[in-house]
Design brief:
With 187 residues, the protein is of the alpha+beta class. The chain contains two helices and 13 strands. The protein starts with a helix and ends in a 6-residue tail after the last strand. About 3% of the residues have low confidence. Keywords: Signal.
Length: 187
């Protein structure tokens, strides 16, 4: 009997560990309005209806940033997606009735009140290459969004504050390859 139990327990242990390591490919959420939201292999279903299809399945299913956020009576779905070799991105959808409508695309970040104004923000800046001269640098442009009164809007104040802190100056329409001189003490 002992000869039989040892191989059986070994098979069960190995089988369960390989099962536990399977990559998830679906997410399930329920809003306070009882909307059932399922994300499966790049498809978004709301109340059983397929409402949005991503061209590929870049979703990072095990990301802690994937979530539903409700603001007033508005429901937002946040999904982190891969964007290699760049930083991951965040797709944001407004879930209204049985429809998922894409409303924002930003650098993946935590959704929190970055500027302590009582509203939640998300976004950030892309990675930039090192400028070949020590006296200048590429401008690192950021872009932040704010959730306020059931809407997502560009947060120019937080973007300007962040860009000024990182770059020493704020350039409203800077591109990824804009060069700025370094100020004293700036890295």
């Amino acid at each position: 009997m002992k000869r039989f139990l040892l191989p059986l327990s070994l098979c069960l242990t190995l089988g369960l560990s390989s099962f536990a390591q399977k990559k998830p490919n679906e997410l399930h959420y329920t809003s306070s309005q009882q909307q059932l939201i399922t994300i499966y292999k790049g498809n978004i279903f709301v109340n059983g209806n397929k409402t949005f299809v991503l061209p590929t399945d870049p979703i990072v299913y095990n990301s802690r940033r994937n979530k539903l956020i409700e603001n007033g009576r508005t429901v937002f779905l946040f999904l982190e997606v891969e964007d290699k070799p760049n930083k991951n991105k965040m797709y944001v959808f407004n879930i209204d009735h049985s429809i998922a409508d894409s409303v924002a695309y930003a650098i993946a970040s935590d959704v929190k009140d970055y500027d302590h104004d009582g509203n939640m923000e998300f976004g950030g800046s892309e990675q930039t290459a090192v400028y070949p001269s020590a006296d200048s640098m590429y401008y690192v442009a950021s872009k932040f969004y704010e959730i306020k009164k059931g809407r997502i809007t560009f947060d120019e104040e937080l973007t300007e504050k962040t860009d000024t802190k990182v770059n020493g100056v704020y350039l409203k329409n800077a591109t990824a390859n804009t060069v700025v001189p370094k100020k004293k003490g700036q890295r």
